[in-house]
Amino acid sequence: MSISKRLLGLAFAAADLLLEIDPGGRIVFALGCSPITGAAADALVGQSLFDRVGKVSAGAIQTVLSDLAPGARSMAIEVLFLAEEGKVRRATSRLFVMPDLAPNVSVSVTWEGPPYPLHDPEARPALTPAAFLDRARSVLTTPGASQDLAVAFVDVLGLEAAQGLGEAGERLRGRVEAALQAASIDGASAGKLSPERFTLLRNRSTKADLEGEMRELGLSEGLDLGLRSSEVLLDPATDPLHTLRALRFALEGCLKTGTLEEPERTFTATLARTLKEASAFRTMVRERNFELNYQPIVDLKSGAIHHFEALSRFSGTRGPAETIHMAEELALIDAFDVAVAEKALERLRRPDGASFTFAVNVSGASLADDRYVGALLRMTAGNPRDRQRLIVEVTESAALADVDAASRRLGALRAAGIRVCIDDFGAGSACYDYLRGLSVDTVKIDGRFVDGLEKDPKARTLITHLVDLCASLKVDTIAERIETRPAADILRDLRVDYGQGWLFGRPESEPRVETPAVKPARRVGAVVGWS
Prior knowledge:
Blueprint: H1 3-13, E1 17-21, E2 27-32, H2 55-67, E3 77-82, E4 87-96, E5 105-111, E6 116-117, H3 129-140, E7 149-157, H4 167-183, E8 190-192, E9 197-203, H5 210-220, E10 226-233, H6 240-257, H7 263-287, E11 291-299, E12 305-313, H8 320-329, H9 333-348, E13 358-363, H10 371-380, H11 384-388, E14 390-395, H12 403-415, E15 419-425, H13 431-437, E16 442-445, H14 457-472, E17 476-479, H15 485-493, E18 498-500
Parallel strand pairs: 13-14, 14-15, 15-16, 16-17, 17-18
Antiparallel strand pairs: 1-2, 1-5, 3-4, 4-5, 4-6, 7-9, 7-10, 8-9, 11-12, 11-18
């Protein structure tokens, strides 16, 4: 075959290196950039391609070759090339058969970064669960990515014992981690869950003899390593971003509860339950099939009921806080926040709600764009007085990604007459950034500052500083989780404006204008939201 046609093949492949191999895998032609820095590509001629790549990659290439029909071109596969001694280089490869070359096969290679040492921890991608999920996002959102994906759980039995081998143990651990990375779909989608347990995103059609490779690596350091693995197939019919969010939520849930002893069972069950509950949550929001229960909040100086907070109640096994967290993690919260506002306004507009003031809470995630603010302004456009009787509480359960943008959106609400409150103030590390960056009227002090207030002088000092700070900014304060009269008296003496808790009443299906602890003031309001 002429060199010009081979050059056409290289252009067609749009690759860094073009190889031609015979049916046995021997390289008979090489053009382009070699995996070894400074070496000519034609130095590869005469070598076996399978000797130039790792065992896992060799297995992947052999699998593709066995199914490659004349005239066909394979999907991209991830390959780990062996570079100079002790180093490897990641690449994306495609195999295709040019009619004039059959039965030989052309292999295009596109380098994915420079060679890196197998045993250099700084050069090797981090094997943390967070890094695994970040790489999974890249894979799942790549157009044309393979649909035959699975989350594999791999136990490398005996690896924990290698920690006592000093330098040899560290070298073995590095080799094992590098091999598992190479076995993942892109050479970087592996995560470490425990000293011996790993997870990786892989293509189920890629065959890899990981058990044999782990055994070889162990023997190289005089240690017997075994392998136990399982996998969970991802549904190709599910939206990739939704799959990713469910994957993250399920994995983090299993790690948090320590239920990965049988990962193929616990993770599968958690992922399936997450997807099922997400679907049910969408239906619930669409049909407005949830309830708001009202809890009174009082003026600590006068003892009068100032407003009510409405707490969301759902059917199902998860509690309200867990359900909200799931909705935030799976990017379902924005539609729910709009539904809560709509339900609150319906209650506001009932004949007996004419004197009420309502507040609705909004997740920080819903302030990432203009949709929530636009929906709330549209819902109140027909009756501007509704806006004067609304308060929006921004919860810290989902951090604001862009405080400046959120402040502009909240500013639009305040300009329309809707007041703004920061919920759970003091609970998150960003609370002071929120107070500085957001345009607000009120903050609600997190209940953890109130718990044990009667016996904890440090808690009183902290609340004092919070109140002084808010007073200097002309921002009102609310304390939650007040259960005793002494706690309410202390908070009043610390100049906290409003209080909420079981002392004043528990959540009920309708606002109760009289509570066990106080009598109503002449004017009664209501704050409606979720927590």
